[in-house]
Amino acid sequence: MRYLVTGGAGFIGSHLTDHLLAQGHEVVALDDLSTGTLDNLAGATGDSRFQLRTGSVCDAAAVRAAMRGVDGVFHLAAAVGVFTILERALDSLRTNLHGTETVLEAAREAGTPVLVASTSEVYGKNTALGLTEGADRIIGSPLTLRWSYAEAKALDETLAYLYHRELGVPTVVVRPFNTVGPRQTGRYGMVLPRFVDQALSGQPLTVFGTGEQVRCFCHVADVVPALVSLLGDAGCHGQVYNLGSSEQTTIGQLAKRVLAATGSASEIVTVPYTDAYPDGYEDMQRRVPDCGLAEQRVGFAARHGLDEIIESVIADRRARVTT
Ligand code: NAD
Predict the structure, then answer these.
(1) What mean pLDDT do residues 141-157 have?
(2) pLDDT given at position 275
(3) 277 given a catalytic annotation
């Protein structure tokens, strides 16, 4: 099979690319390299079954050209990370809305199945223990810019659903919850690689807010095979699936576990949100998924525990410092 991975030079997209190549497939990656890097594609580059096209998912001609001859599309390209969303808010909104519509429209023309990556952010401030796909969204003001990412992704979901329901395009939506692992960078606001970099360089670990916020971290290696299974299963089209771990940790505990695992003597400091982020930020206190649907349908399981995940990120960040 031949697949298009938009955002293929990014964190999840590059792992997906490697996975598809390892399964014997061909991959075209379309990426504007805004947050993704060629480094992430080191394993794929040079493989004759891999092709990188540098361009934007907002460019209809580039998307159509990249989609020629492909059997399925993984649409992962997006403006991601709280810093990106707050600092380049308008560009981010355009990418996350217009990019998805452009990909869906090209898929309709080509008759190609598409997986659209949404996000657990769509649940907003709903702190229910075990969020199911039908759970309510609790979102702040449209002018609190943090929510513009969730708003765009929610509209992407509706678009994907309507392209399936009204236009017959095979689409499936996934909502990843805090996916982490090697290659993720802390530069755009992702907490685990940021903590690991701070610990390894002897700087204070900066916990934003109280540190009592609860999150669940899932290894990218558990998420990637589920993406392939969900797109390949016609029974999943028109549906939405949560993908994440249910192992809870507070951000404060996460910082302590990173210190213990790295053996770092760094201190932990808390930073108020008002100092950590530009205006337009508010947080949610707990986000824990129920992934029963994906478990039943495609055997999804979060197999990597948090300690193993932290170790894998430390190994990756250490290798980057020494190479
Ligand atoms: P990432 O930033 O590493 O990957 C996004 C990729 O998209 C990057 O390579 C970037 O260069 C590319 N991109 C951005 N704008 C583009 C454009 N206009 N045209 C072409 N390429 C563009 O982030 P990631 O964590 O790998 O996220 C991948 C997808 O998964 C995103 O859609 C994101 O919303 C979703 N997601 C990720 C997480 C997570 O925890 N990592 C959680 C929920 C959802």
Answers:
(1) 94
(2) 85
(3) no
